[in-house]
Design goal:
By secondary structure, the protein is α+β, with helices and mostly antiparallel strands. It has 12 helices and 18 strands. It has 2 domains: 286 residues, Aminopeptidase (3-Layer(aba) Sandwich), CATH 3.40.630; 119 residues, Alpha-Beta Plaits. The structure holds zinc ion.
Length: 465
């Protein structure tokens, strides 16, 4: 280990205690989706609060919601000129079934071949713990932190954060910050460190097409009455052009192009398209012409038909002309697309594509999720890359993620750039049996978190913002 790293000595001295703390944390079965575990989720909130207190954080408290509690704690003595950061993670975990596939019980953590196996090891207790330990180490060493730091550790991430946005709104003042650090993501691989800068958003629709009152006899009526299956198929076929582009007018207008540094990073990542295709279990990779698979899944907006329901699907044949059809469509969005604008454009397009006499209803499934992006050239991203690069010995490449979580709400409600410091690996078995944290990655996460605050203090000047 590079002894010039701020927390190198701390890790050497505290290694055993930290591992025991991690084990104690992981022994709590804080499964948020199962009501019988609600007391355990509360116990893990209390445990998290204890970790924060032991680390020297102040104002530690549970933030109650209509569901499971989040945990808050802060250290605000870096001065008004220093930036303020919110550190986000979650203390709840996924269910554990199928139990018989675990090589050791999910809530009895063990270290095997350098990896800690337990539910929550990487998602997300391990990643929460190294953030807290980094603060504890720095406060113990220096008595101060270069930044003001506020921890916000959620208890409902694994059930879709149903009460998180109202919590952010309610606690907006307490959580005021210049930057958010999310520790709930991953890196490309053990020897290719990377930094995620954004996640795609989502907007989805249910389209109902009715052409008649009832199904009709195809012998008596077929050929002289409209068929909603034909209309649905035509609508779906018209969604993309021959080059895989979405045809909804204006769909790409707000798409922010990749920065050259991102494009270069994507190209340098050791991505094996054929292996990825096999992993996906598909016969071919198809998509928007002119873009790589990583670009298609990370930085391009897309449209997928989720389902088409119409007519008869049972055994044999039924001689009907159906009366109604249903199409479900979902769009993945990228910065700076807005779910509301895409929704309006799609609805107008779909209505124009269907005959005026058809009875059509289109409704959005929820308000949608906006895409999240912290521009790769933002000074805070530079600070994070410097911190990680120092620990890993090589500059991290830039990535993005295809899905979305509470990160978008954090950035939007707190009006701050979001950084992703995560050391999970794609094969860490997130949400699956034998979830693991490679301990070497855990220590690197801790050391990176230890470097980050000084880098952020140097990169961000709140007064000049
Ligand atoms: Zn997670």
């Amino acid at each position: 280990m590079d002894s010039s790293l701020r927390l190198a000595d701390y890790v050497e001295a505290e290694r055993d205690r930290i591992v025991q703390t991690l084990f104690d944390y992981l022994r709590i079965p804080s499964i948020s989706s199962q009501p019988e575990h609600a007391p355990d989720v509360r116990r893990s909130a209390d445990f998290t609060a204890g970790l924060l207190r032991d680390a020297g954080l102040e104002n530690v408290t549970l933030l109650e919601t209509d569901g499971a509690p989040a945990v808050y704690g802060d250290w605000l003595h870096a001065g008004a000129d220093a930036p303020t950061a919110v550190v986000y993670g979650h203390h709840d975990v996924q269910p554990v079934d199928p139990l018989d596939l675990w090589t050791s019980p999910p809530f009895e953590p063990v270290i095997v071949d350098g990896e800690c196996r337990a539910r929550g090891a990487v998602d997300d207790k391990g990643q929460v713990l190294y953030e807290i330990e980094a603060v504890r180490g720095l406060l113990g060493r220096d008595g101060v932190l270069p930044c003001n730091v506020k921890f916000l550790i959620e208890g409902e991430e694994e059930v879709g954060s149903p009460h998180f946005e109202p919590l952010l709104e309610r606690e907006r003042d307490r959580l005021a910050c210049d930057v958010v650090v999310v520790s709930d993501t991953g890196m490309w691989s053990i020897d290719v460190p990377s930094v995620c800068t954004g996640m795609r958003g989502l907007v989805a629709f249910d389209i109902h097409i009715r052409t008649g009152r009832i199904d009709l006899h195809s012998g008596s009526f077929g050929g002289a009455v409209p068929n909603p299956a034909h209309l649905a198929a035509r609508l779906v076929a018209a969604l993309h052009d021959g080059e895989g582009r979405v045809t909804v007018p204006g769909f790409y207008d707000d798409v922010r192009p990749l920065l050259p540094a991102e494009k270069e990073s994507f190209e340098r990542l050791p991505f094996d398209a054929d292996k990825w295709r096999e992993m996906a279990g598909v016969g071919a990779l198809v998509g928007e012409v002119g873009y790589t698979t990583l670009e298609r899944t990370w930085s391009r907006p897309t449209c997928d038909v989720v389902g088409i329901t119409v007519g008869y699907g049972g055994a044999g044949i039924k001689t009907i002309v159906p009366a109604e059809a249903n199409v479900k469509v979902s769009f993945r969005l990228v910065a700076d697309q807005s779910p509301a604008r895409v929704a309006a454009a799609f609805e107008a397009w779909a209505r124009a594509a269907l005959p005026a006499w058809a009875e059509v209803s289109i409704h959005s499934e929820g308000p949608g999720v906006a895409p999240a992006l912290t521009p790769a050239d933002h000074p805070a991203v530079g600070a994070l890359r410097t911190a990680i690069g120092r620990v890993f010995g090589t500059a991290p490449l830039l990535t993005r993620e295809g899905g979305s979580g509470p990160e978008e709400a954090l950035g939007r409600v707190l009006d701050a750039p979001v950084l992703y410091l995560g050391v999970g690996l794609p094969d860490d078995r997130f949400h699956a049996p034998n979830e693991r944290m490679i301990m070497d990655m855990f220590w690197k996460g801790l050391l990176s978190a230890g470097e980050l605050w000084a880098e952020l203090a140097a990169a961000l000047h709140p007064g000049a913002r």
